[in-house]
Amino acid sequence: MSSAEDISFETLPHSNLTSPEKRAELMANPAFGRIATDHMVMIRYKDGEGWHDAKVMPRGPLTLDPSAAVLHYAQEIFEGMKAFRTEDNGIAIFRPDANARRFRSSAERMAMPELPESLFIRAVDELVKADRDWVPSGENASLYIRPFMFANDAFLGVKPASEYLFLVIAAPVGAYFSSGAVTVWVSETYTRAAPGGTGAAKCGGNYAASLLAQAEAKAQGCDQVVFLDAVEHRYIEEMGGMNIFFVFDDGSISTPGLTGTILPGITRDSILTIAREKGMTVREEAYSIDQWLADAKSGRLTETFACGTAAAVSPIGAVRTKSGGEVKISGGTGPGPVTSALRESLIGTQRGRVADTYNWVHRVC
């Protein structure tokens, strides 16, 4: 089997590239994840052969056998990352090495072949280079990149598949949420993940299981859902597909610890690092819904925000529960000073406005 370093990418010709005029029209106000760039990357895996047949190719439909394992047993994982225009009009990706490590960890949990981290990063680079004209330059704009892998082995039997496809696609995007603070609904009916499950893996099944709870939140007039732990139904875990942080009147911040049921967010880790660099007291600890509501009412809690690749840092202005009604967080109007400072440091680093002291920015071109 070839090593990751031996694999070369073949670039297939594209006969129908989007015109500059059409591309500009599509990128003027892109809905999140709705607009496709011209290319995709594909690499195949087969037991006995390993990773092979790497291609940069025109984006297009896939052909799957009806008994493809992913359609029946959900062997699928993915990542989310962004490419940004820098101050000097270059293109950079934020922490792709961290995404590559998490991708390998997710693959291990889902009994899938582990893609070498160097090959993951090369594949992402190849797509960004091919579609560099799709990287927008607006303050809230970026190229959202979606690497994913799924089992395409054609069989009906409950066992790990022997064939897989790894692909990378991309879409130009604007802000994930509109400006202002979001309102969240605490689900007391559904849980996202249980101990021993797949909560720490970035697999599609986790998100499928969250959709009904998200619909419940929408029905309650909320923007997002917050999940409680599956054992005691008391402790805050995640907000939809994002991690959650709490800011207190003494200037400290806390976030739920990684217990195996929470996705180890790369933005989460970045925020923790930035906060510590700023000299803030940072805690990773359990925090109950009752304490959240009590601290918001008393004023001890001054800010709450969610973070993730898609939304970056987003303030939470109010929390609603079935039993406790709605509680505003520090007026509920917008980001507080700590949220704003952390967000500016994060985005400033991503776009080259702030010194990259941790070597997080991966320059593509």
TrEMBL record:
Reactions the enzyme catalyzes: L-isoleucine + 2-oxoglutarate = (S)-3-methyl-2-oxopentanoate + L-glutamate; L-valine + 2-oxoglutarate = 3-methyl-2-oxobutanoate + L-glutamate; L-leucine + 2-oxoglutarate = 4-methyl-2-oxopentanoate + L-glutamate
Pathway given in the UniProt record: Amino-acid biosynthesis; L-isoleucine biosynthesis; L-isoleucine from 2-oxobutanoate: step 4/4; Amino-acid biosynthesis; L-leucine biosynthesis; L-leucine from 3-methyl-2-oxobutanoate: step 4/4; Amino-acid biosynthesis; L-valine biosynthesis; L-valine from pyruvate: step 4/4
Signal peptide coordinates: none
Cofactor: pyridoxal 5'-phosphate
Key words of the record: Amino-acid biosynthesis, Aminotransferase, Branched-chain amino acid biosynthesis, Pyridoxal phosphate, Transferase
Function description: Acts on leucine, isoleucine and valine.
NCBIfam families per UniProt: ilvE_II, PRK13357.1
Name of this chain's protein: Branched-chain-amino-acid aminotransferase
